[in-house]
Structure formats: structure tokens, C-alpha cells
## 1
Amino acid sequence: MQDFLNPFMTNIGAQELSALEADITDNPVSYCHDRLNRPVCSLEELEKQFSSVNIPECPVDTGIYTRYLSENVLNQVMPVSSPAFVGHMTSALPLHLPALGKILTALNQNVVKLETSHVLTALERQVLGMMHKLVYNCDDNFYQKWLHNGDHALASFCSGGTLANLTALWACRNQLMPADGDFAGLTREGLARGLIHYGYSGLAILVSELGHYSLKKAVDVLGLGQDALVKIATDKDGKICIDDLLIQLQELRRRNIKPMAIVGIAGSTETGSIDPLDALADIAEREQCHFHVDAAWGGASLLSERYRHLFKGIERADSVTIDAHKQMYVPMGSGMVLFRQPTMADAIEQHANYILRKGSKDLGRHTLEGSRSAMSLMLHSNLHLLGRQGMAALIDAGIEKAHQFADFIHQQEDFELISKPQLCLLTYRYAPPVAIKLMREGSEQIRQKVQDMLNALNQNIQTMQRSAGKTFVSRTSIKPAQWDKQPTTVFRVVLANPLTTPEILEDMIKEQRQLARQSEFWEDLQALLSSE
């Protein structure tokens, strides 16, 4: 038995593991550049390495396991800290965070309840209060009253935007059908009985066609059905079309379907577009429905005095989602949902005899998740060690870099900017000038052929670039207004990493140009273009 207790009592044979940990955490960016700048193993190869499902019977030496990790796992992780990895939200992190993460792991706190977190409960409420003030800017008396009030919640942490959106809409749904007469409330009797009692044929949530896929999950989990998510058309800038929203609301009234919530997007995942939040707040108020803002992407930009005006109206939202693991530079797994009125969280309050007791200040009383790590400490550290000015400077630099890169793309005759940056995201594609000319002047049949070929080519370029392992952009398919809303495969770039330079981006474009000529679709595209 003593042999199995050793890992809990002494750090036997861990020198190699400690050396590997230091090699990575002392400078993750260098590790990514020096060790991971190589062709990527195919998924098929990796699956073969991890095909055994037998649990090891006996412990192995720590040094042997460390070498296994180094040679088979860590050498194939994605280099998300690299300044040339510009395809997703993950970025290089401030170098104090790996050490802080190690401390949190060692202490193993669980903020679901006071008994396993204590001081970190108070700290988390403080951080949530800071974020609430960032969005709603209430006076000091408000925060003195509500900040540490255990019976209500200004906000809550969760693993990310998906759960934040779900939590907001869960509270919205439960508030919509409270106890009334002989009806004990939706929370007790369920959605079907609630619809009957209140006389609705159904509920609906309205969001632009660029709404995050988590909303589709939310209507499913909440029992509304995926058809309850009503997608609204967008304009040429990716913003929700108010006229189409009003038409859809009129149609819902005709069908006796209650609009449960209107969702405004403050930074769409694909293009970074921001809806007219003030106008949406007016409509939600008139329709007497919940107004939720998904600011998972854009919420951090509220720290910027230069760009905060883009979010005018967010302070009128009943609830707001923000992801700290995007542009607040904390590790993955740190989302938040904020409530304008602290009493809104009462609609989702839960209790258990062994934890989350009535009258307690357990954070888990108002969260969908149970056990959670103290990720709030990561954000707390950034807010103090970087400060508002430092974080704002990072956000401003990312947006400015996106505008500079957009200008650079404009100067390339064989690349086309698809969506102009509103935040630090933009989309573009490889498209030779002859192809663009045919797309504008050719017959409908020719335009479709060229579009299909460009889609295939750009998809292939992105796949080859990812496999080469030098640089990375993501790809998506959007329906830009300039191409008659035709599905268009584009490169998606996120310029959140403060270490990304213009030179890196220029080299990335050069690589994409070279890969285009190496693509299996290149000759077919040239043949098509020369035949017209």
C-alpha cells in the first residue's frame, strides 16, 4: 500500500517531469516555435498510437512517462501560443499564468461551495462585480448591496460562452412562466404545462443568422426545440436586419408564439460583427421579452475607451455573456454570464442538503455547473497585473492590426477581403483577378462554376497550410452580400495574439499563394478561367 501512497507524499523520480514543465511554462511561445514548427501528424497516425483501451496494471516510472509525453503527446499539440497561429481565439498568455495555474492545481479548490473554497468565493464575487460594472456601470450603493449577497447573484463563472448563453436563457425561460394561481410554475411543472396555462402555442428565441451554434444547443436543452431558434437575415456588414426581425416578430404573433428572448451579437464568431444593440433593446422592451447579448467575443473590448462606443446599448441587456478566455488572456475554460438585475438568478436557484444550503453564500446555488476550479483567480490576476489600461492597449492593438492586415489584403491582386474587421477578426480568400472578373461579369452558370472552384481551392489551401505546421488560419463558410449570399469558403483570421507581427502575416499570405499553385485544384481553376 505504501508504494501507492508515495505519489501523494513525495515527488519521487520527478526531475525529468519538472524539467519538461519548466521548458514549456517558462516560455510557451519559444516552445511552440522551436519544437512545434513542423508538419503535423495525420489524425489516423495519432489514433493508432492511442488505440489501446487497457488500463495499465502497475505504475510506471515518472521519468519513463515523462519521455512518453514528450515524444508522443506534447510534440504534437497545436502551437496556439505561436504568433503565426492566427486562426482561433487561443493566444499566447501572460507568463505569470502558468505559475498561477500550477498553484491552483496544487491547492485544488472547488468554488461550488464555501467549504472547499472560502476566500476564493469572496474573490470570485469581486471579479464578477468588476465585470458587472464594466457592462452596466451601476453606482457604488448598488454594488455595496448586491456584491456579496448570497441569496442573489450579479453573475456567475462557467466553462465558456456555451454554458453562459444556456444559463442566461434558462433563467429567462423560468422567469417567463412563474407560479400563477393553480400553476406551480415552469420550474415545477415543466414547459408543456406552462404553455397551456399561459395560452401560448410555443416559445421562440430570435438571433441573426450569425448567431453562435450554442444557441441551437440551448433551445434543445431547454425543451423548446431547435425550430424555436428563429434566424434573422444580416446586412452587408454582418449586422442583424431590423426590418426582417420585425417581420419575424409579426409572424410569431400570428402563430401565437411568444418571443422568449431577442439575442444581440456583440462580436460574431465568424466575422466579429456587432449588432445594433440599442435598437434591439428598444424592440425587446416593446415586445416585453428578454434581451440577451452574446458578447463572448466582443465583451473584452468594453475595456477600450477607443472602441467601447461600438457596444452602445449593451448596458440595457437583461443578461450578457463574456468569455475571459478570449481577449482577456486567461486560459481556456473561463466564461461568464452577467445579469442586469441580481434577482434574475433566483429563477435558477438550486439547493442540496450537503452543500448549497438555503441562506449560504455557496456560489453553486446559482450555477448550472457543480464543481468548478477557481478560474476567477486567473482573471483577477490579469486585471491587477495588466490593469485596465494594459488590457485596453492589447485590445486596441489587435483591432488596429486587423485593419492593417485588411489594408494589406486589399493591395494583393490575387486575394479578396470578404468581411472588413469590426473587432480583431476578418475573413478573406484567395481569388485571382480573372476569377473575380468572371464572378462579376460571367453568366449565372459560369459564376457558379467559378465560385465552386474557388471554394474547393481555398478549403484545400487551408488544409495544406495546417498540415505544413508553419502558420495557421481557420476557415469557415459565410454568405457575403457582395456575392448574392452565395456560400463562400473563406480564411478566418483572429489577431488577438499581441506577439503577431505584420511580417508574420505577410509571410502567411506568401505561403498561401504558394500553396494555391501546389493545390490539386489549381490546374482545374486555370483551365476554367482560360476557357471563358
## 2
Amino acid sequence: MKRHFGYRIVGQPDLYESLVWAVLGQQINLQFAYTLKGRFVQAYGTEVKFKERPYYLFPNAASIVNVKPDELLGLQFSNQKARYVIEISKAFVDGVISQDKLARLSLEEAKEQLIQIKGIGNWTANYALMKTFRYADAFPLEDAGLKNAVKQCLGLDRAPTWKEIEKVFEKYKGWEAYATLYLWRML
């Protein structure tokens, strides 16, 4: 931890982008997740040029809501990721999810609202709330990388149990997101 002293949560100011990024990055390696995100942004984002070089803004929910799942499959999304990204987009467009409304809620209330949406589970909700609202106590407990880091910390030759993971986090109560970031840096 001393080596990374001062490490902070890198925020993502847009909740929609945080949620979509969380879905894209689930259960695949980070390199492929970045590839998917790049394809998605180039296909549906707005192009802006700077010194004749193209850059792309992350698409908004309204630009994705009518996309057919097959189009996303063409970008190498899984069926599930394609459906979830479209469902999340619909939830934003229909006002079911509102960043402004969630900003006024507690972590638990915001999480409850988010997990009502198909494709958003506890891991995705915690990750997005940690990144967008910088809740210091939001952390994706179910994260595979987090499990591996706890395994290393505890010197285990097996995956840690949920109880063992929760015990590690007890001493960081209220700062679980930061503990998660430090543990991820170990990997």
C-alpha cells in the first residue's frame, strides 16, 4: 500500500458511461474490454476532429436505444452484453435511471434503484457508483480480481471465502472503494 500511497478513485462523471463500461468489461480480460469499448464508441459515438485527427465521444443513451442487438453482435458483443447495453439505454431514455436523482440518494438507495434494471447487478451497481459518485464505501465485492488480490494478501493457496474477503474489508469500513483500488493495484 505504501508504494501506491495517495492513489485515488479515478472518476467517470457520466453514470451512463460507467454502467455501459462496467457491462462491457464483465467476465473478459481488460484488453478485450477496451477493444469492445473502442468499437462501440467509433460505431455510435460522435466524431470530433482535432488537428485533422478523429476522436470519438462516448454515445449517449438516446443514440443506442433503437440499436438492434445484431448490430452490437457485429462488434463482438455477446448476446447478453448487447441486450444489457440496450436495456440500460432504455432505462435512461425512459427516465427510470436518472443521474441527478441517484445523486441525491444514499449508496444503498442508489444501488437498489440500479439493480432493478436488467443487466445491472450488485457488482455493476457498486462499480458505477464508486466511479461516478465516488462513494468511498461502494465496492464490487464479487470482483474476480479482488478475490485474487485478497488471496495474495492472505497467502492462501485457494480462493478466499466471502467471509474472509469481508473480514479483510472490516478494518476499511467506509473506505472499501479505496481498499479495492489498492488491492487491484497489486495484480
## 3
Amino acid sequence: MKDGEEVSTVAAKPKSLGELIQYHRLNKNISLSKLQEAVGLDKGSLSRIERGEVKRPDFHILLSIAAALDIPHHDIVELYIEIGHKSEVIFSIFQHELATLEHPLLICKIAAKFLESPSEDSYDLVEKLYRTIDSIENSAIQLSLYHLIIDYSRSHGIMPYIAKGLYRKYMIERNDFSRLKETYQSGKNVLDYVNFLSDKEKILLYYGLSVHAYSLIDYEDAIRFGEYVVKNGTGESQANATHNVCNAYYHLGDFVACRSYLEKYSQYPYPFVADNVCLMNGYINGKTGNIELAISQFNAYLMDSSSYNLIHAVTELFHLYLSIHDFVSAENLLKYEDSMLESINNEYTTPFKRSRLAYFYLLKGIMMFNTRRCEEAFNCFIESTCEYMDIGVYDKALVSLLHIQQSVIDNNPLPKSELVQKINSLHEQLCKKASRDPDLVSKMMAALSWARIEIPDWLMTMSITMSTSGITIPELPGFRAK
């Protein structure tokens, strides 16, 4: 060994950059001379870095040393940002990490260190960080940085960036359709800070909340938030909000308001407007008794329908055919089933749209019963139940499942034994859901009454007592798993 430079391997975890470099160099049995050849820095400078005599070594030189010694990137950067730098240096390291996105946990640590810069104004620091985040393509990293901005802004009383951080966090999280109820509440929480947002941000927030509420079948909120955009927005956002409010009024049964908003919507010049107006006219005519006109409108629409609206047109036309007992025409609509499934087979399909698929299976099951294909009907009702449960619409799931019970009461054949266990399992799951949620009990009661399906004893007991103690979860009448 040269110059007596080799010593026993450092056993403790290195606490400084110098210790870290020496630890890995000795472990790899590399002399300073060899390291000098690898990184192009003279041995004396390398020795001073190891001894901690260079207070702020060049970052890129350290990366070269780390590469030569196989020092984990995370270790070298984490120690480097702790030795005290100007904010510009920390920010340049932050940008370096953003260029690769290879170390996401490190990015947030560097950003936090940047915000700690003592010589800079806290508002300027958080503003600079906020402006950088929008260019990041990784949504998980964006979220972690917005969380950092929110926490930092709260602790420093920077209200505009509490608002902006919460707003941007919501606009990302609302795309996670597995957490729609939770993220909807976080979106509404942004309203506490809405006056700190720009006019454009306010429009996007209210529109996002309107669509979110509609997806959760909360039509009153969809109208409330949408009307803000109708009043204050412009262009496509205003047009889309008008359409969303129109749809919400339709589902609330207020067809006067629905027609009023549809008329406003029809005036917009965008290419998608005519398709949506045509579809809604069919919906309104069907609900207001003009069934023959509605059927002709939907059939005309299906001759050149958009993939986006296909499932809506087919399910409503299916419903209209069943209402006039035209089972032949209803069955003809099954040719669209594969295309409908394809049209919703993506991560951005909303719960509302998935509820249309569940409704389609319910209608298909009713048609199968009326054409004496009971086994196929049972399978359709099970599919409908599962689709509704997947999106948390448990009241309608129970309606679909109890169509099977209703068929038994009406003296139709029992399901085959292989379906019995599945049916009873779904029934048990729905009972348990209701046992933990009095509001769901009320929704189930209302849904079954509307569908004219006999209310089971267990649900009636829950409704009367609003208590779940002592209630046993039964099998459906006549069904016994073997």
C-alpha cells in the first residue's frame, strides 16, 4: 500500500461525505492513486475531501467519485445537501434529480432542504418550487411535492400556496377512481381557500367538482358547482359545465330546467355538442311519455353513435323497449354489448358510466326472464350486482340480486346449485354493508320500493330499529348452499 494511506475499514455508518468516500474506497481496496486515475482529480484534493477539509466539494466531482466507488446515489446526495449550501446550489441539485426521476424519495428531501434556505424569503422559495412541479410528468412525485408545499405553507402562514397546493393535489388525486368519495371531500376542502386561487383555477376547480359530484351521483352538488362555471366561465369549460348541469337536472327529474340548459348548450359551436344534444333529446322524450319518438331518436343515433356515448344510448333504448314489452327489439341490442365493454375498458371510465353497464346487465336479465331463459337471467343479475358493488352502489346492487329472489317467489325455476353459493355470498356481503351504515339501509329500502321488490325481513328489521344487534344474516329464501 502507498503512503500508509490504507487503514482498517470504517465499521460505523459514515456520518460525513469524507467518511462515506473513505469507507467505500477502503471496502473496494482502491488507493487514492487509483481513484485519481478514475475520476481525474489529483490525489491531494481527494485526500482533503476525505478528511473533510473541503467544505463544499463540487457536486459533479462527488458524483464521479460515487460512480467509481459504487457509492449509492442516495447516500452521497443526502449527505451533500446537509453540509450547507446557498439555495441556488440546492435547487440545481433538485433539477438534476428531476431530469432523471430515478430517485423519487430523494427528490422530496432535496426540495425540503431547499425550503429551509435561511437567507431567502419563504414566499419566494415556495413560489419557485411550486412553479417547477408542473413540468414533472410523474404524478406520484408531484403529489409528494404538493404535500410538502402545503405543510410548509401552513407552518409559515403562506395562504396562497396552501390554496394552490391543495388545488393541484386535488386535480391529480381526482383521477384515482378507486378513491372518488375520499378525493371529492378533499376537493371540497379547497373551497375554504378558494379566494386565494386565480380566476382560471377557480373555474377549473368548480368544473372538476361538478363532474366529480355527477360521477358520484350527487346531482345537487353537480348543479351547484356547475352553475358557477356556467356563470363565470368561457369557452369549452362553460359549454361542458352547461351540459353537466343539464344532465344533473335530467336525473333529478326536473325536465323544465333540463330543457332550458339543453337549449343553452345547443348554442355552443363545438363539434361534440350536436351528438350530446341528440342523445339528451331522446332521454327527455322517453321520460316525458314520447316513447315512440324517443325510440326513433335513439335508433337514429345508434346508426352513427360516438363510442363515448354508446353505452348511454343502448341502455336507455333497452329500457324503452322493455317498457313496451318489445323483447325482440330489446334482444337485438345485445349486438352492441362487446362494443360497449370496449368503450369503457380504460382507467378513466367514471363510476357513473360503470353504473350504466350494471344497469344494462339488469335490463338484460329482465329480458331473459321474460323470454323464459332463467339461467341466463340469473347470471345477468349476478353480473349487475357485482358491477354495482365494484363502484360502491350497494342499494342498486341489492335490487339486482333480489330480482333472483323475486323470480323464485313468482314460481320460476331455482338457480342451479353452482350459482347458489355465489348468490348467497353476495347477499351476505350486502347485509354486512348495510349493518354498518344506517344511511345505506334507508337507500336500500327506497330502491327496493321503487323497483317493487319485496323488502327482506333483515332489512325491514334494520330499518325499524336502526340497530344491527342480534340480526343474523340469512340466505336468500329457497337457496341453500350444498
## 4
Amino acid sequence: MSPELSFEIALHGFLLWASMGFLMPVGILLIRMSNREECGRRLKVLFHFHVILQVLSVLLATTGAVLSIKNFDNAFNNNHQRIGLALYGLIWVQALIGFCRPQRGSKGRSLWYFAHWVFGTGLSALGIINIYTGLQAYHKRTSRSTRLWSILFTAEVSFIAFLYLFQDKWDYMQKQGVILGNEPIIPTDQEISPTPRDNRKEMNVPC
């Protein structure tokens, strides 16, 4: 393998990691966080960041696709190339769905939200899977170890998934008193009412 081809393969991998493995999951995390926001200004900031990250993700994925089609031998005889071909089409479908967002409260809003959520979640998961298949294909092509990159990518995905699940339960944890907020924990009726033994003691106390 020539140094030029090796560089192009590495560049292709970096572009698709930045697109599918970083920008897209972070964009999904941001829009998920916006569901907890009541402040209109912060809600708009999170939404605009979501849009910017997803647009950058589409552009980087398209650049990686053009690089692959132009310089690589694409026989589509392995899972990485087949999944990648599907991703190149789906990511543009998702972008078009995103730009066709109906106004909140309109009839088609619920259907649009469901389609956008299903496409976005599925696309992100498929992109992450294809990064792993890409690392395997790179190892077979170059005989170079990709163990370190696999470990680092797994750690990154796990951290983003943890943040996604944690922020979803943040309000619930605060209400349960696991994380103390500004409101005091109100004791339950069982904690307030005296026990039968306490009642007997009160009755035996002389006047």
C-alpha cells in the first residue's frame, strides 16, 4: 500500500468518525437536554447548536463519501462498504426531514417528530457500528493493530451514552432526594406519625 493511499484511508476514517462518531451523537445529546429547559433563550441556544452540529456531520460524511468513491476500490463485498453506502443515503434523508420541520402545534408535528427521532437514533447507532467495521477493515487491509482506537472509541461512546441517560434522570434524582437541590426533603406521613410505643409512653406519663 502506498503512503498516499494509507493517508487517504486514515483521512476517510477520521472524517466519518468526526461525523458519525462524535458530532451526530453530541448533537442528539444537546437536543435531548433541551427537553428539560424552560428558559426560551437557553432552549434556542441548544437547538441552534444541534442544527449546526448535524449540518457539519452531514458535510463531513459527504466529504468522506466522495473521498471513498473517488479513491478506493468499492466492490461492496464487505459489511463496512454496504453499511456505508446505506448511511450516505440515509444521512441526507434525515437532513431533509430536519429542514422540513412543521411548526409546533400543527397536525403533522407528532408524525414528523417520530420520524425524525427514529431516523436520527437509528442513523447514529448504524454509524457507530460502521466505525467498528471500518476499524476491522483497516486492520485487514494494513495488518496494523486498531485495538487502541477501538478502546478509545468505546470509551467515548460509553461516556456520551452515560450523559444521555444521566441527564434524562436528573430531575427524577433531585425529586427523590438523591441529589439535594434547593427544596428541602419533606418527610412522609409514616415518619411524622408516632409509633404505638411512643403513644403508650405518652399515656403513662403522670399528669
